[in-house]
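Entry 14. Structure prediction run on the chain below.
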Amino acid sequence: MEIGISTFVETSPDVKTGEVMSHAQRIREVVEEIVLADQVGLDVYGVGEHHREDYAASSPAVILAAAATQTNRIRLTSAVTVLSSVDPVRVFQDFATLDGLSNGRAEIMAGRGSFIESFPLFGYDLNDYDELFEENLELLLKLRESEKVTWKGGHRPAIPNLGIYPRPVQNPLPVWIGSGGNPESAVRAGVLGLPLVLAIIGGSPLQFAPLVRLYKQAATKAGHDAAKLPVASHSHGFLARDNDTAADKFFPSTQDRMNHIGRERGWGPYTRATFDAARRPEGALYVGDPDTVAEKIISLRKQVGITRFMLHMPLGTMPHEDVMAGIELLGKEVAPRVREEIARWEAAGGGQA
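Output returned:
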């Protein structure tokens, strides 16, 4: 069972002061957070790609590279790379470079993303949304198969037996498929034999169990060993020494961001009652003290089949010192408890079909 963190490197206005930190400051803070996550024993850190004023990570590979030479064991991944609107050759080269800098710790999480700003920015047509993803994923997987590539598609110039460099340390360079819960994306990942990442940010996490089964069934039918395919989740959350403190610290920025995005997408208001309901054992928020968060992660492993848990922290703008304290609790207290319990459960035959 792997435990880690994901971030979108947000620079939204401070909910108390209205001040907006610079992109540069937030990027430097994230590098510090990755270094601490490595020091406290977390397994993975993911940085999501966005192209908006309120997000500072348009180039996750660069931020991860800044942390690569300051860390020793933590895996470094995008979360996600918006594959529909980027050149797969450049993605592969960037993450192969990161893989070299980190001596084999880079990963790509490929997804569609939940925002569309990158399409007009890079000159892509939203009408080609799905077709671009399919084609770019096909090329990305081909790039990791061999040094010389011959390829032709409909949206990018052909590649006539050209070398793609540098080559990564890992063979193959890990590529995960990110999904918001779409059955088709889960089946696609299974057919391709690629690890799956689920964004579990609302409702009940138990609702994702059928999706994991569908993914495993598709993998088995395609001839892959489904037992060896990891499944990850990405969920919002925060840790403090007690449940009330964790909730009171995390709610203001969470409400601000959920309502900000909600106004763009026509959602209803996000209230404290909504927040508190999601903090319950059956909810999708992982907010509380180490015992509370550990128990919810253990439940996610046992009941849904998640083998990697990524806590999205912070959501919106929070004090850097609070985020660092949360990372320390996740690494030093939550992760050991989860790993020990899951190891005992698996040794006793847990999770065996």
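Residues 320-347 form the longest helix (28 residues).
Filed with the rest of this week's runs.
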